[in-house]
Amino acid sequence: MKPVLNLAVLAFALLPTLAFAECRGEHSDQTAASCIAGTTWDATKGTCIANPTS
User: H-helix or E-strand containing 53?
Assistant: First the structure.
């Protein structure tokens, strides 16, 4: 029974590491609400862009 318990503990210890590996860091903290004055949110680029002046 001891080897089974050791394997279970090892599996539970590795679960957070495996879950973190699935997150590739492509998430951005920037949103439309975080754009500064003079910029607008560009959904296609996923970032704030300067307002065009005409």
Answer: none
pLDDT at 1: 66
Q: How large is the C-alpha radius of gyration of the chain?
A: 22
Burial 6-27 (b: 16+ CB within 10 A, else e): eeeeeeeeeeeeeeeeeeeeee
Q: Are 51 and 41 in contact (CB under 8 A)?
A: no
Q: What integer pLDDT is reported at residue 41 of this predicted model?
A: 86
3-class SS of residue 26:
coil
More reliable by pLDDT, 3 or 28: 3
Q: Which of 45, 10, 51 is nearest to 30 (CA)?
A: 45
